[in-house]
Amino acid sequence: MSTEAHDMPAGFDAIVHAPNRLRICALLDTAGEAEFGLVQKQLGLSASVLSKHATVLMDAGYVEQRKAVRDTRQRVWLRLTRPGRDAYQGHLAALRAIVGPADPAS
């Protein structure tokens, strides 16, 4: 089976597709905005792994970060941008197209 880009359905996004980035997008799509430490805890990722994937998403324009001081400590908050939300939703639709319709008998 070929995995070339032209074989993928419309909306398939290689940036979002990486498992940890897909999980980050899913969490942020639901939460709206989340503190870095909360995302790290919820997804069970190390700070370095989350930072690496968040940077890829930020470089693509899919995630924004906001820094704020809370309880005298600087905190980083992450949220999906509109293009990020569109890419995530489009990617979900592409994955559904790949797997086909759900079997109502299951």
Overview in brief:
By secondary structure, the chain is of the alpha+beta class. The chain contains five helices and three strands; from the N terminus they run H-H-E-H-H-E-E-H. A hairpin with a 2-residue loop joins strand 2 and strand 3.
Could you explain the architecture of this structure?
By secondary structure, the chain is an alpha+beta fold. It has one domain (11-96): Arc Repressor Mutant, subunit A, CATH 1.10.10. Helix content is 53%, strand content 18%. The protein is built from five helices and three strands, in the order ααβααββα. Strands 1-3-2 form a three-stranded antiparallel beta sheet. The longest helix is centred in the C-terminal third of the chain and has 18 residues, at 82-99. The two termini are 26 Å apart. The model has no long low-confidence stretch (mean pLDDT 91).
The overall average pLDDT, rounded, is 91
Adjacency order of strands in the biggest sheet: 1-3-2
Q: What Rg, in angstroms, do the CA atoms define?
A: 16 Å
The separation of the N and C termini measures 26 Å
Helicity, in percent? 40-55%
Stated plainly, the CATH topology is called Arc Repressor Mutant, subunit A
Determine the CATH superfamily.
Winged helix-like DNA-binding domain superfamily/Winged helix DNA-binding domain
Instruction: Just name the CATH architecture.
Output: Orthogonal Bundle
The major pleated sheet works out as: 3 strands, antiparallel
Q: In sequence order, what are the helices and strands, one letter per element?
A: HHEHHEEH
What's the CATH C level?
Answer: Mainly Alpha
Shape: elongated
Strand content: 15-25%
Number of helices: 5
Spans of at least 5 consecutive residues with low confidence: none
Could you tell me the number of beta strands? 3
Number of spatially distinct domains: 1
Given helix and strand content, the structural type is alpha+beta
